[in-house]
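To whoever is on call:

I kicked off a structure prediction for a single chain this morning and the downstream step that reads the tokens threw a length-mismatch warning. I double-checked the sequence; it's 276 residues and nothing unusual in it as far as I can see. Pasting both halves so you can look.
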Amino acid sequence: MTRNVPSVPELEQRAQNLRRHVVRMIQKVKVGYLLQGLGAADLFAALYLGELRLDADQPNWFDRDRLLLSTAHNTAIFYAAFVEAGLIPPEALGTYTDDGSPLEVNASERLGTMVEATCGSLGQGLSVAIGMALTLRRRGSNSRVYVVLGDGELQEGQVWEAALSAGGFGLDNLCMIIDRNYLQVEGHTDQVVAMDPIGAKFEAFGWNAIDIDGNNMADIVQALDSARATKGAPTVIVAEIVPGAGIPFLEGQMAHVAFLSPEDGERALAILEEAA
């Protein structure tokens, strides 16, 4: 199967669709990972609607590309991407976090193959992705493995053990995207543990490192193309993200879990409609 990559303007428009889905989901439950979802919409649009080789009719297709959401609580944007990619029906979003719904706050494999692994414990996603990448390489598959990691997860020692292994194995079929939104439960990440320069640290572990504006679609697409073309080393894309991106009255807010009143939800949707 060949990749059908939309143009940058098309991906930008699809990212706005993702933001609408995110707002509606959080508006329904009144509180959740709103700012993270809005901020990462451009990344998820580029990944699920352009970069990943997937077959919605054959979700178990062995040679599909795989994406793991290590920050498994950031599910509003995850499920929104599934809808836009045709992996789940739009009406499923109406069951978000309902009792018995497979659309849980922390994504799990109950939903299906599109959730490649349950990653509720932070810091474990890269390790799982490395195991997948190694297996695919040994089987001679040209599939790629992607993992989205939160910047707060870099405070977990397991991430750095995994990073050392991936660099040592030269896993050029592995690409990690760090969602650098500076948000974690305890507050601003730099006020908890300063982590910069992130890219240089990974380069020292044998990775190809790319720093980008994670809300600039052209930058994202170019970085993913570069990662795909890189041989002999895994790639890490450090994506600087504005929490709440796309909604001016939410942009830059630093709330790990945000409240969204019905009125603010309608206001946010109106802004997205006007920008369409």
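Update from on-call: the warning came from a stale cache, not from the record. Cleared it. Sanity check on the structure: The two ends are 31 Å apart (CA to CA).
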